[in-house]
Amino acid sequence: MKYANVIIPAGVDSGDTIHVREAGNSGGRGAIPGSLYIKLRVASDPVFVRDGADVHVDKKISFTQAMLGGKIEVPTLDGKTEIKIPKGVQPGQVVVLRGKGLELPNQAGYFGDQHVRFKIHFPLKVNERQRALLEDFAAEEATKEQSFFATGNWLYEQLSTG
């Protein structure tokens, strides 16, 4: 058995191989030892999903934040950062943070991007005041949009039938 100090470069991925010269088996009778090849397997992360140099993260927001926009903190590889939620953001819509991904080995200075995907949380229950506000909103929406939204608006139809 032999111990070897190995530096794992930033940005390596599963399946990558690290070559360490003269750290393998003895060459015998004074010959130089062979090479050690280490095949890597990178553990999955509970927050980030990796795609090459890019990382992906899901962020849950309320439906009012989705409609009105705002700001929210999201995790990055360097800590937390505040991003803007666009007004009217749709479920699954993505905001890209350029250069916030991983640095690729053998490409010093090149960083991938971080993709933040919005997951919109809709409440299962609303109180009476919230219901009244939603009914007012649905009625105004139906008045403004007349044909398309009034006839195809599931929320409006649900609130109208009680």
From TrEMBL:
It comes from Aegilops tauschii subsp. strangulata (Goatgrass). Keywords: Metal-binding, Repeat, Zinc, Zinc-finger. This is Chaperone DnaJ C-terminal domain-containing protein. Coiled coil: none annotated. It holds the Pfam family DnaJ_C. Residues 5-123 form the Chaperone DnaJ C-terminal domain. CDD domains: DnaJ_C. One of its GO terms (molecular function) is unfolded protein binding.
